[in-house]
Amino acid sequence: MADSTTTDHGKFALPTKNLPAPQVRDLPEPPTKTWKVIGPGMVGAGVGLASGEFILWPYISSQVGLVFLWGALVGVGIQWFLNMEIERYTLATGETALTGFNRFGKHWGLFFAIMTYFANMWPGWATSSATMLTYLFGGGDAAWIAIGILLAIGLILTFAPVVYVMLERLIFVKILAVALLVVLALIFAIRAKTYSALGDAATHPEFPVEQLGFALMMGAIAYAGAGGGQNLVQSNWIRDKGFGQGLHVPRLTSPITGEPTADPTANGYVFPPDDVNMARWKRWWKFANIEQGMTFVAITVATIVFTSMLAHATLFGDDTVKNNISFLKIEGVTLQTLVGGWFGYLFWAIGAFSLFAAAAGIVDYTSRLTADMIKARYLRTSKITESKLYFGLVWGLVAFGIIVLLSGLTQPLVLLVISACTAGTMMFVYSGLLWYMNSRALPKAIRITPVRTAVLAFAFLAFGFLAVFTIIDQLKKL
């Protein structure tokens, strides 16, 4: 029986003081053809192929070479563990991580939703895409182009019948485009000196804080892959894909073109930890780990290494490279000189499309996280659906981004550093909360293991340390 604070279905112990008790349902049978449910890790990697991969890490490589690439590997590795702890809770309960946090503290979800919204209000990704379009077409007002991009994103997300399906297809096209750029660059642009520098970086890594500063380095580590709220939204994406208990939860659909769906009658679902369900859990957990490793980790690491090598091959040692997005124009012009005019234009075109797709994903996950939190915690009994909340938040982000651009704040790197610092602070907090939640709410057989606990402890300390020093670094510049 459930008391006022906890409910115990088998060995689950989800607090019920702030939210209703979950329902009991068997864990769904994992699909026999697992390739059909590959996608959330790919979407996470594709959305993450944005500021870090096309701006922050290439800029770092243009300034200090490849000696700090180890920071990207550390960042992606930590995020794989974070993503899996976020997915662990959702696989077992069908609830998002934010809903789980709300069970332990009634306003934790609101805190992270506000932080995510604040981090992504600044349209650095849309502005970056617009700036690369001006390089591609030889001019234009980047601010007005960025406004057009924001409006296009709002319309695309509004009219997609099932939002996740549309996003997955968009990201798949983006990954194919980036893969084409990788193959062509390896053939035509990257030279022996860069491969040699990569080898030196592997044997003699450095921590170039004097050249780069803590804010930029924290941003690069925090955004090596995903970062901030994007890690948390893995809950929502695997739920929409039908992973584990998420199969019982309706997906986000367009209120205009999508099929009507009822909101969940309960916040989540727990399964009896009998032999059948535990066997299914082991298969789901194994698949989820492999899916993240083969998509999120592999795609992200390969892209960071490649874009950094390309920046090294074209920009390292060039004194004209400055701390703003204009270095991408210099990089494209250099590629035109090394390979041919067509390659520079291809570089700008794929970069612009990649950043556009990332901006769409960022607007999606920011609104998705916030809508889920508001509906699950504050509007459970309201007739306002999560889909309607989602689309209102989408257009709120679009409108605020337009206001920011019209106000004249259009420098992408400044906007991205603001976002990255906020993301790092969020990761510091939820690293600790994930450990607390997954070591208490779930049955012992599926709780977080000591090795994963150690990684989360490292993430907690590392992001906390970096957050403090970044704030100090920024205060010194005021």
UniProtKB/TrEMBL annotation:
Entry's transmembrane regions: 66-83, 104-122, 142-164, 171-192, 212-233, 293-316, 345-367, 388-407, 413-437, 449-472
Keywords in alphabetical order: Membrane, Transmembrane, Transmembrane helix
Superkingdom: Bacteria
Keyword Transmembrane helix: yes
Protein name: Divalent metal cation transporter
Organism, as annotated: Kribbella albertanoniae
Lineage per the UniProt record: Bacteria, Bacillati, Actinomycetota, Actinomycetes, Propionibacteriales
